[in-house]
């Protein structure tokens, strides 16, 4: 049996899928994140308010989506402190129904390897339904 | 109402220090579905070389938030918060945030641009620890929709 150690830069190839994740979001997830983050904008839990500002319904906090889609990368790296840079563009909202779930999926691939800096750029493809919801989602991970 | 172009380059006074609590880090970690024991278990964090539990990367937004509130409240900014959409977000770390840190954030406005009737404001919040050492820079681009 092999002990899984911290991934090594030398073992990576651009294009490798290093992690994947599936996250079923419910309204409970949004309320929990509102409390944990302090972002109590009611468009993230009240349908009437969301509709009144022209949205089709309640949507997930962009920062919630940004927050969980990086977690498969953290688990792969073995230490949250290895994430040295993380950016996303919010391109489409994730609508979360009052009952049921909105499923968000992430596929994390090696986008670039900077051996001198000791950093791998991991590119995230994040979708809900068939639609991509984040653009230019990139985490830079410090490795040896 | 349009965004005041003179905001570009403005540096705001630092906001009040934010003391990072262990249970807040654990609560935030669970809310973003973090499963790393380094986020959740002080013993695991210490074994990995940290003083206490490590915050997930996006926890920095909790510290940044007071600076964005400062920006929206600036009397001459011309930013109607009901028209603000979060365009993009970036965190650049010198080191991760750890429970026990006392962090101070300072906002500067890197740019104000007009684009097709909308304004794009890039806000940079520089977050330092109690010793004044850089921890993380949080950069947000806010899109302020123009009048329809």
From TrEMBL, chain A:
Residue ranges of domain MaoC-like in the record: 19-115
InterPro entries cross-referenced by the UniProt entry = HotDog_dom_sf, MaoC-like_dom
Superkingdom: Bacteria
In which family does this protein belong, per the annotation?
Belongs to the enoyl-CoA hydratase/isomerase family.
Q: What is the protein's name according to its record?
A: Acyl dehydratase
Q: Which organism is it from?
A: Cryobacterium sinapicolor
Taxonomy, top ranks, is: Bacteria, Bacillati, Actinomycetota, Actinomycetes, Micrococcales
Automatic annotation (TrEMBL), chain B:
Q: Please state what the protein is called.
A: UPF0336 protein E3T28_13130
User: Which PANTHER family does UniProt cross-reference here?
Assistant: HYDROXYACYL-THIOESTER DEHYDRATASE TYPE 2, MITOCHONDRIAL, HYDROXYACYL-THIOESTER DEHYDRATASE TYPE 2, MITOCHONDRIAL-RELATED
| Superkingdom assignment | Bacteria
Q: Where are the transmembrane segments?
A: none
Sequence ranges assigned to domain FAS1-like dehydratase in this UniProt record: 9-137
Which family does the similarity line name?
Belongs to the UPF0336 family.
Q: Cross-referenced CDD domains, in alphabetical order?
A: R_hydratase_like
Stored InterPro entries: FAS1-like_DH_region, HadA-like, HotDog_dom_sf, UPF0336/Enoyl-CoA_hydratase
Fetch the Pfam families from UniProt.
Answer: FAS1_DH_region (PF13452)
């Amino acid at each position: 049996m092999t002990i899984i150690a911290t991934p090594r830069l030398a073992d990576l190839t651009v294009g490798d899928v290093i992690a994947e994740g599936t996250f079923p979001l419910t309204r409970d997830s949004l309320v929990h994140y509102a409390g944990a983050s302090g972002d109590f904008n009611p468009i993230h839990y009240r349908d009437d308010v969301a509709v009144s500002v022209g949205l089709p319904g309640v949507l997930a906090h962009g920062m919630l989506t940004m927050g969980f889609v990086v977690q498969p990368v953290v688990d792969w790296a073995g230490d949250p402190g290895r994430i040295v840079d993380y950016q996303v563009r919010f391109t489409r909202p994730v609508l979360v129904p009052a009952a049921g779930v909105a499923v968000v999926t992430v596929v994390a691939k090696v986008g670039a390897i900077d051996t001198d800096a000791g950093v791998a750029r991991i590119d995230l493809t994040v979708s809900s339904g068939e639609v991509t919801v984040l653009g230019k989602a990139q985490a830079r991970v410090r490795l040896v | 109402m349009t965004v005041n172009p003179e905001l570009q380059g403005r540096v705001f006074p630092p906001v009040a220090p934010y003391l990072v609590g262990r249970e807040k880090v654990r609560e935030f970690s669970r809310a973003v579905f973090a499963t790393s024991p380094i986020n959740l278990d002080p013993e695991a964090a210490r074994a990995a070389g940290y003083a206490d539990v490590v915050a997930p990367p996006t926890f920095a937004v909790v510290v940044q938030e007071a600076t964005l509130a400062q920006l929206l409240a600036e009397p001459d900014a011309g930013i109607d918060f009901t028209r603000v959409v979060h365009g993009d977000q970036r965190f650049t770390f010198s080191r991760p945030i750890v429970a026990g840190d006392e962090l101070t954030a300072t906002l500067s406005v890197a740019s104000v641009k007009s684009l097709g009737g909308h304004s794009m404001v890039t806000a940079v919040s520089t977050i330092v620890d109690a010793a004044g050492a850089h921890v993380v820079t949080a950069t947000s681009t806010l899109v302020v929709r123009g009048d329809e």
